[in-house]
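hey team, just a heads up i'm posting the complex here instead of the shared drive bc the drive is being weird again. everything in one block, sequence lines first with there labels, then the predicted structure for the whole assembly after. its two chains so it's a bit long, scroll down
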Amino acid sequence: MSAPALPRWADIVLLPLVNLAMAMVVAGTVMALIGQNPVKVMAMMAQGAFGSLRGVSYTLYYTTTFIFAGLAVAVAAHGGLFNIGAEGQGTLGGLGAGLVALWLSYTMPAIVVLPLMILAAAAFGAAWAAVPAWLQAYRGSHIVITTIMFNFIAYTLLVYLLVNVLKAPGSMAVESAAFGDAASLPTIKEALERFGIDWPSSPLNLSFFLALLAAGGVYVYLWRTRAGYRLRTVGSSAGAAEYAGIRPAHQMMIAMAISGALAGLIAANEIAGVNRRLLLDFTAGAGFTGIAVALMGRNHPVGIMLASLLFGALYQGGAEVTFEIPGFTRDMVVTLQGLVILFSGAMAYVLAPALSRLLHMTPWMQSSPAR
Amino acid sequence: MDAILAGTLIASTLRVATPLILCAMAGMLAERSGVVDLGLEGKMLFAAFAASAAGVASGSLLVALIVACAIGVLLSWLHGFACVTHAGDQVVSGMAINIIAAGLTVVLAIAWFEQGGQTPPAPDAVRMKALWPGAAQALGPVIGEGFFSQSVLVYVALLSVPAVWWLVYRTRFGLRLRAVGENPNMVDTAGLSVRRLRYLALTLNGVLCGLAGAYLVLAQSAAFGPNMTAGRGYMALAAMIFGQWRPFPALGACLLFGFLDTVAVRLQGVKLPNVGEVPVQAIQALPYVLTVVLLAAFMSRNAAPRALGKPFVKEH
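-- predicted structure starts here --
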């Protein structure tokens, strides 16, 4: 006997929440097994993430990066492609932003340098994504494999450039010289100080608004323009798109270029906003968090913003708990992230039949007419 | 080239290639049955942790090996549960396994051993020693040191290649395995269970991943460290694709990647005639670049199993 289909609201809202709860329960079980109190840990995480203005600022800082990464994965997914390369595209975005900053930030004003840095970040990210996209579209090389390879190549490229070319003279650390002031995207604290408003110190910077803008832009593009319709058509059925006169190879290139550009913008937050120099591994796995975020957010910008907020809170909350509970590290959050990908992604519909039967047993669902 | 250098290069290439070979053979069994296995990295990492933890706790090499293989198989079954039983996305499931392994191994290592995510070095009884310690004296630096100074898992890895070849190309199971990766509907029509065949392939895959992980902590380094696989699982996947899903070409790719890694370490700061100093990073990136180039150049030959990555849903 096959279970009846889930009603739409349950498919969009209830099932993701149930899957998230499953991941939380498994993570909580792990915590309990190693002698930590999961309820206490989760309460501390919530307190650390939302309990103070400073905590909220840190949460939103992490959220910013995850929105970019999640949108990157989602746009590619709407084009029918799985982009595992957001990590490498973000790395190249950092290189683009860094090169512009090292070139111009000591001589030019911020109004020139910052837009160029953001453009360069997006362009470098897009270019790094365009190669696997081209290979997939015209040579049939599987994009999952090529994007993984490009992550490693991006990393070794950055190591090479930082060690041999861009390293600050006389410095031991593998990082570039500090950028000039013109290359600093103002933090919220710095921005609000101009209006005389006091805000706690945090890495949260103006790229947060860029992320919101990007989310709005992705929504309008995908669901309110013909170009977006073409892209989604290819993602749903490349064959049908071809009959309708849409060239799938073209749309794959566009999807990956936008995806790579969004991933490149991670650098706006991490490089221009926070580190203000080019360094290794500033993406810190955000490209993979983006996969979890996109899966949880069902590839929709609103869902992605909510899922990014959740992961931002987990990262910030997790960092706070590290100070309080000995033996608790960020790795617990990484584990939870993997569990979310497992339950919301790979096993997304495992619970659907059971959930559906449960819903149809409730008197309220039985009285409503069958769909 | 002098003989001692040649001997060390050969020995080092074999050592680096061993986990790659085991994982590449594991990946081949899964992918020939039609299941994409991106989780090689995570399975190897978790098995390495399991081998180390079990070795430290029990003091027995056999227990360490069994636990490592058991963990590899369990993770493979999780992959099977998500993708074979419930037709979930195979790529996503593999990524999930990798990320869970990266996080959970460190969480458990900190909880159990309190050394910042490392495990204590395994006692001597658990370590794998060279099968024939006197080989270099008896057979000279090239043959002796190069080929016969290794621990048993190196030879197991080398033997796994003809074994997998024989299994895939010369047995009834292998014929069915290849069929289920090319056309599961046909296999189903013939009255065989697609699920059973894929689970069998995943089980063997888990054992081989377990051995690869065990090799890392019992023969190569002395203890487990966070993310110690460092992308080897992905490199094995690349080697398997580089070898076009065939055992012996994949072995060649693993040996090539192992040799490149060995050379990269030795070429640090060395000036080559006519070329000048080659950046180490360029040699390190070479396996990945080669794989991309090869994929782009030869994929028109359709080497990949036809049903790879497509979940099989039985029609009622």
